[in-house]
Amino acid sequence: MRRTVVASGVAAAVAAVLLGSAWIGYHAYTASDSYRLRAEEVLISRLTPGQGYYRVNEALGVEPSFSVKLPSGNKLHQYEREWETLQFIESPSGATLSSAIYAKSLSFRPNISLGGRDVRLNVIALAETIPLYKPTAVNAYCGAHKGGYIEAYYPMPNAFRAQNIAVGASSAETEEISLSASCEALAMSGCQVPQPKYDNEVSEALAGCLEKSPEIREMRRTLKVSVVVVTAPGEQLVPDMLYPPDVVAAGTINGR
């Protein structure tokens, strides 16, 4: 009987040690950067425009880093996250009109639905993102401290859930993503690039000019998409939705 009790005690002790080791291992895994990164990617992939903004705010679990009331009456909410910057445009009625993702890290690779077509940030090339359509307009900026190249697609058909889209790349708020090759291609294209005050306007004339440039065609084959802007179904893609994150963070919109 004594041997049985001892054996049972040893077995219980071993089980406790194994359970404790498993718990420690699980805790260490869920606290790791790789786990947190994957969890963030899954969360972001589920934040779609069209729902009430309060649901987006609840899902993120924190208040926005910046909130700006725009001249249109809409509000721009910007979240500074570890691997990305997020923007959401909220209508006066509280609806989320658009969502924008600006990757700050090359490791950030969520799958994003563009009107039903899934693309993976920092993996897919710009030319492969919406291959059956030509960009309607382009937004581009090349400065001393940042560069950006964004292609806008609108109006999109019901096959894309009538969601208008902008895709491209930007080095605003990050040093991991370089737009030097894109800016060189723009300079060699011979096209006149508009310079709006806040770098948030697209140009259909620029898109038409760039379509003829072999340098731009080559650039589109190699540039990885790190920026995605998607509207709610049926919503127009407007300048409210295209402010670079550094412009919002600087507080220059509306003189804020």
List the helices and strands and how they pair.
Layout: H1 2-30, H2 33-45, H3 53-60, E1 66-69, E2 75-80, E3 84-90, E4 96-103, E5 111-114, E6 117-120, H4 126-129, E7 137-142, E8 147-153, E9 165-170, H5 180-189, H6 204-210, H7 214-222, E10 227-231, H8 245-250
Antiparallel strand pairs: 1-2, 2-3, 3-4, 4-10, 5-6, 7-8, 8-9, 9-10
3D architecture notes:
It is built from eight helices and ten strands. The protein has 256 residues and is α+β, with helices and mostly antiparallel strands. The protein has one domain (32-255). It has an eight-stranded antiparallel β-sheet with strand order 1-2-3-4-10-9-8-7. It has a two-stranded antiparallel ribbon with strand order 5-6. Strand 1 (66-69) and strand 2 form a beta hairpin. Helix 5 packs antiparallel against helix 7 (214-222). The longest helix is centred in the first third of the chain and has 29 residues, at 2-30. The N and C termini lie far apart (80 Å).
Number of domains: 1
User: Residue ranges: pLDDT <50 for 5 or more in a row?
Assistant: none
By DSSP, the count of extended strands is 10
Strand content: 15-25%
Largest sheet: 8 strands, antiparallel
Oligomer: single chain
Q: C-alpha Rg, in Å? A: 23 Å
Q: Specify the helix fraction band.
A: 25-40%
Main-sheet strand order equals 1-2-3-4-10-9-8-7
- Name the helix and strand elements from N-terminus to C-terminus, one letter apiece: HHHEEEEEEHEEEHHHEH
Mean pLDDT over all positions: 91
Structural class: alpha+beta
Q: Could you say which overall geometry the principal axes of the C-alpha atoms support? A: globular
- Note the gap between the termini: 80 Å
Count of runs of 4 or more consecutive helical residues: 8
